[in-house]
Amino acid sequence: MTEANTTPPVVVRLDGLRKExxxxxxxxxxxxxxxxxxxxxxxxxxxxGKSTMLNLVAGxxxxxxxxxxxxxxxxxxxxxxxxxxxxxxKIGMIFQFFNLLDDLxxxxxxxxxxxxxxxxxxxxxxxAMDLLxxxxxxxxxxxxxxxxxxxxxxxxxxxxxxxxxPALLLADEPTGALDSxxxxxxxxxxIDLNQIGQTLLMVTHDPNLATRCANRVIDxxxxxxxxxxxxxxAA
Amino acid sequence: MSAVGTAALAAVKRRKLQTVVIxxxxxxxxxxxxxxxxxLAATSRxxxxxxxxxxxxxxxxxxxxxxxxEGDLAATAELDGVEAAAGPYGQLSTTLELPGSGPHGLPVTxxxxxxxxxxxxxxxxxxxxxxxxxxxxxxxxxxNAPSGPLAVGDxxxxxxxxxxxxxxxxxxxxxxxxxWVTEAQMSELAPVETQMLYRFTENGTSxxxxxxxxxxxxxLPGGALVAAQSYLPLKEAVTAELGSYLVFLVVFGILGLxxxxxxxxxxxxxxxxxxxxxxxxxxAIGFTPRQVVMVxxxxxxxxxxxxxxxxxxxxxxxxxxxxxxxxEEGGLGTVTVGLTADAIALVxxxxxxxxxxxxxxxxxxxxSAAEAISAGSATHRGRALRIQRWLGGTRLPRAASLGxxxxxxxxxxxxxxxxxxxxxxxxxxxxxxxxxxxxELDAVTKRRDDVQVHVLPSxxxxxxxxxxxGDEAIQEKLAAMPGAANVTANAQVDLTMxxxxxxxxxxxxxxxxxxxxxxxxxxxxxxxxxxxETVVTSRFVYQHHVGVGDSLTLxxxxxxxxxxxxxxxxxxxxxxxxxxxxxxxxxxxxxxxxARGVYxxxxxxxxxxxTADYIAAVDAAGLGLEGTEPTKVGGYMITIISLSTTLTxxxxxxxxLGVFNTVVLNARERRRDLGMLKSIGMTPRQVVGxxxxxxxxxxxxxxxxxAGLGVLVHRQVVPLxxxxxxxxxxxxxxxxxxxxxxxxxxxxxxxxxVAGAYLPARAAARQTIAEVLRNE
Lengths: 235, 776
Prior knowledge:
Oligomer: heterodimer
Radius of gyration of chain B: 34 Å
Strand content of chain A: 25-35%
Mean pLDDT of chain B: 79
CATH topology of chain A: Rossmann fold
Helix content of chain A: 25-40%
CATH superfamily of chain A: P-loop containing nucleotide triphosphate hydrolases
Number of domains of chain A: 1
Number of helices of chain A: 8
Number of helices of chain B: 25
Largest sheet of chain A: 6 strands, mixed
């Protein structure tokens, strides 16, 4: 049997990725591959370019140079609408500060992602309800974000990110705004998701998060990959 | 529901303040726009419109019934140049004795007419019904006039004892009669005159009217025509009375329109601009740029549509009420708020809101998701650091210096907030100024501060005594009455002027005319100081192209008066000249033959008995004269002032709401800054102080700019409006604000900005730091 048959396909490929903001270079020729089912943590000091890289992988921003390919899609070829459709279908994203829509209750925040793909509201809500149930916050379905705890908000954000069964789940400091207990719960959630095959790319300052959730850690410094480590995930 | 619908409607539902403010701003603006459009439509050629509504008579002709038979008169309707004719109607010049009116009746022209409608002079029967039997009468009065002594059901009587019951009130815009009875009733009264009403195809000038009348006269037996009253003097009188006020109304209408549009645009774009983080989140979860734009357009359109619907309904009712009181009660016919105005507002406002939202929404369209999502929390490097450092070095409390520095950190947002404040204050300044100008215009033109009593020949009394006594003696008697400080006698004389087609209006004044308030109207030169000098109105200058230093020659029967123009006064939209009475001496015998109307103006001593006492003394003196107060601020003026005030209040409210909304959104966005500052030890009071100082600074800046622009716009627009009415305005009308009022207007900007900042700042200051930060 060939290696191609045994090795999972590449989900994310970064090729000489550069991003400059005026005179400041945020990313300086980053190349990287992430395969399906991997959980990769990007670590590094503030301003090292890790969140910039995440934004470029999510198609939230455009690189100055280099190439981003996600699930076979070259983001360079996509216009703004194409990028939105790409995010809608292939990316789930979790932010440090949750970025839930304050105007929608929990259920609609989650269901909205499915509605974007054309699902009717009742079907979208039914799937959202299943997810909220799985994540243990079904009883908070009618609550608005302002009344949720940080851990609850992040679980809603995770549910929203998973709604369209994304090829890649991106997490930007997912436990950064949570207390330790809520952080633990989110970590467990991410581990569970990865164990059922969800590819995960996260950016974090938290070594505990990285070692518990990731099976590969990439250290960034000054916009470049400083080193890569493979990990045996902690039990 | 689609994702766009879900996100947009949720925002409409949850962002209550924004939804309510947009709805209210749109509603008030729509009310303003409907009223303004109705106003613009109604002020377009009001005389012509009212005249056309009643198919007014170009000529009201009186014939000798004995000379011209009914058949002859009816045949004149077929003459060339006669567009339509009504009549013949029996006509009687008589007096009506009113209940309790004493020995002297009310002179009236009574006409026998079976139908208030017809091809000419379609009467507005605004109360009661038309006479259908003998013994019934309808009186002429403007619709809904302030209730006089008579009402439907009252009885009046003719000198022969015939008793007539009032069954209605009608209004003839052409002033064809003072009362109407049935034709049968008129026949019983054996009238010696017959009335015919004509409309002519050529009717624009006196010459055309004269020519048409001459053709009628030629078609009838000699001496049949007793009198022919042209509509042109009426047209001039109405036009002069409305004068510049209409122009101000037009300006107010246009201003209301412009300001409403600007404020709606400001509020709506503010809502979009303040939503950048929301836009970023939408993009991050997969909304396409077009869908994001749609979310924002739907979000602002829903309250806008609701506001436009309610605003149109309210504007229609308010406009109808205002127009009815402005025009119908002024005798200018029925004016309705047209469906066009409703349709324009109903469709136009949501479209305007869409356009206003489209510009910032398209900017959001272009914004990358990463930029949008970090808006408000992203740090901004190096903006206005020098100013902030300087403020930090001042002796101001740190909270205040930080607050004052905040606006410089985000110049775009600062500019928008300041623009909202400036716009609001500009509107208020202009509106207050315009209302004050209109009020002051009335005071100056009517010389309210200087003339307290007008004395005219009594309508109800015998007229011989006034002429018997002579105007000099009357003037002396009036001056001798208690409380009189100055009395002038004023004569209007039929004179022709060299080089002018129409005889000029003129007033020859005897007495101390300098004391009668004309000098407050002086635009150029000085008041006349004796014979040989004249002062003309600014309209006269426009009409006759004369100025100070020019000479005028007035003629009568070969006698002439030479006058030099020594001054120009503002006037009341009429072209008139004023000169000393002694100039008439040059006319010699010619003066004895002319019909001259003399009236008297009285300035009372300060602190003298009430005006009413003087008037009572005049009435009691048995001179055949009656004293009246100068026309109260009433009729058009009350309406115009109330209209100005209503529009001012509406525009001011709209502007204040707009400012409040922008500041609230602005302040809310900075709650994270506030949380940060609290986390490093700032007290809640300092937080509130900093935020309110920041907005107070902006409010002050916007207030100063707005007040300045308001004054500037007023100074540009008002003279322009006056020029359209062919008058010039005195300086006091151009600067109607006092320093305290201007200061109050500037402070209003500060107050609104502070109020807008205080509520969210206080809410943020009360939250725990973790809560504020977590909310990000």
